[in-house]
Amino acid sequence: MQFNLADVFESVAESVPDRVALTYEGRSLTYARLDAEANRVAHLLTQAGIAPGDHVSLFLKNSIEHVTSILGSIKIRAVPVNVNYRYTPSELEYIFTNSDSVAVIVELPEHQRALAGLLDGCPLIRSVIVVGDPVAELVDAAARRSITVVPFADSRQQSSSRDFPARSGDDLYVLYTGGTTGYPKGVMWRHDDFFRKPLSGGNPYGEEKRQDLAEVASAAKEFPDMSFLIAAPLMHGAALYSLFTFFTLGARVVLMRDFDPKKVVEGIEKESLQVILIVGDGMGLPLVDEMERREGEVDFSSLYSITSGGAIWSVGVRERMLAIKPDLVLRDNFGASESGNDGAFTVDQDGNLRMPPSPNMVLVDEALNEIEPGTDEIGYIARIGNVPLGYYKDAEKTARTFPTRDDGTRLAILGDMGRVEVDGTIVFLGRGSQCINTGGEKVFAEEVEAALHAHPSIADALVVPRPDERMGQQVAAVIATYADAPELTLTEIQEHCRKTLAGYKIPRAMVVVDAVKRTPAGKADYRWATAMAST
């Protein structure tokens, strides 16, 4: 059968209605209650003129309203569009216009004011739904354009019934992803492909994928009552995929407004958290710092696993977590907005990230030919199977990222590079766009960053190229140290890295900053780091 995400959620809600689905800021909603709230939001959106196929931008931080907006949209076959609330005005306007959004759901006063200044340049927007009180600037700007301003609170007067039209596995979900250059791109997922790939066919912890809604419902009823903390913002792909995954399992999602390592550590005991989702070292480093500070004060006994996705999670950070709780299961997911979860990395004794053989992942050369296992040739990691339709309104980038072989097989090639061993294991080297060419030798930034993060004085680090007259480019490290750490020298850093890295990979320049700049989701800001390294 073809799966629709709204149908999947409703099947789980019917199967485990009294189980807690969502906990946020001390408030908990059962699956039955969350489903009812989402139904009310769906009816509110319909009343605001939003029809099947319409795109709705969610200009929201983490909240219950954010979750019910996602669910309410897909219930009426509308298309939710994630909005990075840290974007500049020009980037926000691009999202609203490029996505063809006819409505925006917004909350914070500063976000409302930003939206007010952009409405004149967004001709398709006809409704703005406001969580909380609308600010005067937004009301005035909407009036000039005859845009309807709808209080989100009006959803309380709407019906909680599930009287929606039939849905399809072909319904669309658009997930905008920010790159290191240019404007964000809208990844177009069919609901059925979304379920089968990012949600692992409803069974992320097993091999057998769910065949129909009855199996989804039955599996949710049998799944243990577990608590998963999503510490990342829902406008980030890893958090969104996790939200739907945990809902599909019938688990309890604990949602934080913002990532706060102190609150995360306190929540382990307070909420009996069993699994925590982070985004690489950007969240992992401050989290393990806080875990070390609170060791002996906080009861970590409920915590079973820490899972990361969407960014590099270094061995050094993981070893520190295991030193606190040796029985932790650490899962480093490999994936992207354009592919969903591709599986979990393992780490070998040399610190290399390795992906076990999979029929859905191969290594190809620039001509899309598969590279023979056991060679030393470096190629592109390609995903096969349930891949997105492409990028919304961008045929050129779609053709480049989602090429089709002569035999009709569609691939997703995102620039991740690696080599394939005799048994089919793929060794991950890094993102090609962050590859540094120094004297003809290729250096992947992620590999050097992982080595730097293992240094006890380094709180965070990014690695970028810097021009070099003789070598073309040199490896430059932008680092932040812990407040109580002794001053580091470039020589000390080089000696540390030389223990695990080849000589040509050693940083030749170092810039110390107060804090390494990352996105709200914890991802690296390489444009900023390059600017810092050039000063």
UniProtKB/TrEMBL annotation:
Domain AMP-binding enzyme C-terminal: 447-523
Domain of life of the organism encoding this protein: Bacteria
Listed SUPFAM superfamilies: Acetyl-CoA synthetase-like
InterPro entries: AMP-bd_C, AMP-bd_C_sf, AMP-binding_CS, AMP-dep_synth/lig_dom, ANL_N_sf, ATP-dep_AMP-bd_enzyme
Any GO molecular function: ligase activity, forming carbon-sulfur bonds
Matching Gene3D superfamilies: 3.30.300.30, N-terminal domain of ligase-like (3.40.50.12780)
Location of the AMP-dependent synthetase/ligase domain: 9-381
Name listed for the protein in its UniProt record: Acyl-CoA synthetase
UniProt source species: Rhodococcus xishaensis
